[in-house]
Write a structure and sequence with these properties.
Helix content: 55-70%
Order of helices and strands: HHEEEHEEHEHEHEEEHEHEHHHHHH
Radius of gyration: 33 Å
Strand content: 15-25%
Low-confidence stretches: none
Number of strands: 12
Number of helices: 14
Distance between the termini: 26 Å
Oligomer: single chain
Largest sheet: 6 strands, mixed, barrel
Strand order of the largest sheet: 4-5-10-7-9-8
Structural class: alpha+beta
Length: 422
């Protein structure tokens, strides 16, 4: 029997019981759709995290004050308080491969401008901070090295802070008060959005680090030092050089723990990737289970079909059909079920984000409150061609795997017994 004739017979058999065929495919449809949607959510989360890590800048190394042990009691992260401005200058001047350095001091406080006020973080930075972070200006300009040396009363605002203090106005050139210290606005930064930790990066005011330390916070130690390597392949060398320099400057003896912590973008990216990959694998695993359940449903229905069509199988064998023809027929039926179900499932999986957003929009218009739909509508999704191809091939493989046993059972029926079957 030719293959096309076998395919026609298989399709005719499936059309004969439309409802049963649709219900059998439903398991595959749900399974494949879930795989596509879950992998898309995982990939979207990964891409979003990577974009937020990239917002830190290029080739960035972050140095934080570490913890110290006093009498067996550890102070915790940031408790050492040993990073100084001199450390930052030494890194810039003595470590090979360093492109830029920005000492960092932080504080918090209430900002006031006219009748408006806003509580936000105050960041003291060097002039290279904006190039390290690759943070462009929407309006105005950055402070200068002269402003840093003189601890000038100047600042740069994030977009969120500028909008809160000067709604509908041009913030550049205006004066605001930080802890009752008058400060002139030099520039407003372009929006960067949410950080990988979930905080609003645009909700900030940036002043020269000397201004923050002397006039606003009254501190002598830095919270962190931002370092930019000259190129990606120099990151490891720069990190090792910084470690050696700081251990020497802080007189840390061999075998003793560092009183500082160094992290680079690659380490942050690898940690974030490991988390998202685990999440994606977990979600995809749950979806694959539903796909396997759909395959079991195909096997069950194909076994029922073999029993119902035993007499038909006997007639075909009696008129010359061979065992492999019967095997091909039932195997093609199973693969057709899983393949069509897989194609429909792929369409649903790809369309799932749009469907969720549409449902969330309809709920909001009708006044129905659904926190889940509102949250799900904002989830980032990224469906790749690889995931679509793999899901489709896997659905076809499920049809072959779970359809083989019923097909083999049908091909091994004895023609005489099959003709006698009622």
């Amino acid at each position: 029997m030719r293959i096309w004739a076998t395919i026609k017979i298989a399709l005719r058999a499936l059309r004969r019981n439309k409802l049963r065929t649709v219900l059998t495919m439903l398991g595959i449809i749900i399974g494949v759709g879930a795989v596509i949607a879950m992998v898309g959510i995982g990939n979207g989360a990964k891409a979003q995290i990577q974009a937020r890590i990239a917002a830190l800048g290029q080739n960035v190394i972050l140095i934080f004050s570490g913890s110290i042990n006093r009498g067996g009691v550890y102070s915790g992260f940031g408790g050492a308080g040993t990073l100084t401005v001199e450390d930052a200058l030494a890194i810039q001047n003595e470590v090979a491969g360093v492109a830029a350095v920005s000492p960092e001091a932080r504080s918090g406080g209430q900002l006031m401008a006219g009748n408006n006020n806003w509580s936000t973080q105050i960041m003291g930075e060097g002039v290279d901070y904006f190039s390290i972070r690759q943070w462009d200006f929407a309006d105005g300009a950055a402070f200068t090295e002269a402003d840093v040396r003189s601890a000038a009363k100047v600042c740069v605002l994030g977009k969120t802070t500028a909008d809160k203090l000067f709604p509908g106005e041009d913030a550049v050139g205006q004066t605001l008060r930080i802890r009752n210290v008058p400060v002139r606005v030099l520039g407003v930064l372009r929006p960067k959005g949410v950080s990988m930790m979930g905080s609003d990066q645009d909700d900030t005011v940036i002043v020269p680090y000397t201004t923050c330390m002397r006039r606003l916070a009254g501190v002598t130690m830095l919270r962190a030092i931002n370092v930019q390597a000259a190129s990606p392949d120099r990151i490891a060398d720069v990190q090792n050089g910084v470690t050696e320099l700081l251990r020497q400057r802080h007189r840390i003896m061999p075998g003793r723990d560092d009183d500082f912590i160094i992290r680079n973008q690659q380490e942050i990216s690898e940690t974030a990737n490991a988390t998202t990959e685990t999440l994606t694998a977990l979600l995809a695993g749950v979806a694959v289970i539903s796909l396997i359940v759909g395959g079991i449903g195909i096997m069950n229905i194909m076994l029922v079909s073999v029993t119902e069509r035993t007499r038909e199988i006997g007639i075909r064998m009696a008129v010359g059909a061979r065992g492999r023809d019967i095997l091909s027929q039932f195997l093609i039926e199973a693969v057709t079920l899983s393949s069509i179900g897989g194609a429909i499932g792929i369409s649903l999986g790809v369309s799932a984000p749009k469907i969720v957003k549409l449902l969330a929009m309809l709920c909001s218009k009708t006044g129905i409150q659904s926190d889940f739909l509102s949250s799900a509508a904002s989830w980032p999704t990224l469906v790749s061609a690889d995931s679509i191809i793999v899901a489709f091939l896997f659905s076809a493989a499920v049809g072959i795997f779970f359809g083989f046993y019923p097909a083999r059972k049908a091909s091994r029926l004895d023609p005489i017994d099959a003709l006698r079957y009622e």
